[in-house]
Amino acid sequence: MSQTFNDKLKVLQKTYMKMGINVSDQIYQSIKAFTENDQKLAAEIVNRDSKVNDEEVDLEKEALNLIALRQPVASNFRSIITLLKASSDLERIGDHASSIARETLRINTESRIPEVNEAINQMSLKIRGMLESSLDAYVHSDQEAAKLVAQEDILIDKKFVLAKNLIVSEMEKNSDKIELATIYLMVVRYLERIGDHIVNLSEWIVYNATGKIVELNPGKIEPELIAKELKNNPK
After folding, report:
1. Among 49, 53, 54, 222, which lies 20 to 30 A Cα-Cα from 96?
2. Nearest of 90, 66, 72 to residue 17 by alpha carbon
3. Would you tell me the Gene Ontology cellular component terms (predicted)?
4. Over the chain, what is the mean pLDDT?
């Protein structure tokens, strides 16, 4: 394969990594805006939502041009497909982060639920750690590290269930917080979905290394796993 192809592929890979870093920051900023009720920051996040979308479109355009002009061999073709698929998942993660910011803008009260705020912060911290580990696994083409990242999603699912239980309990105790609690439910759901997309990133790393599409989401592989985890480790 020509040096020109390798150089262009490296540019695409750098674009993908930049997307990943931007998305991680987007998650951090959206959770900060939500838990601190920072309406100004939330509006800024929503207004710049197109940044990650534009990066994904540019990456897709350049990737398709590279396929058309260079006709890569199988292994290099997989590398491009991996970038296309994984960047799509990053874009969806960015969309979910922006959706959290939009939920912040829906809140018309200064009131918060401190226990749920803490649960959300813990979910966000874990998710960002998973995303950064996934990006590192991609850089090093480390499929075993990618698989370990995917296994951590069961902890996100567990935190989601625990947070949801806290929110429902608050709704039952305080009927005046039902609207706020409903927004909380949407936020923890968005975080849970982000976890699923990070699992997808791991699956694309394995595909790039092996040419095989595998299911790595622990909750899908063993549907009863979350219930078992909650039973054995209820906190």
Report:
1. 222
2. 90
3. cytoplasm
4. 91
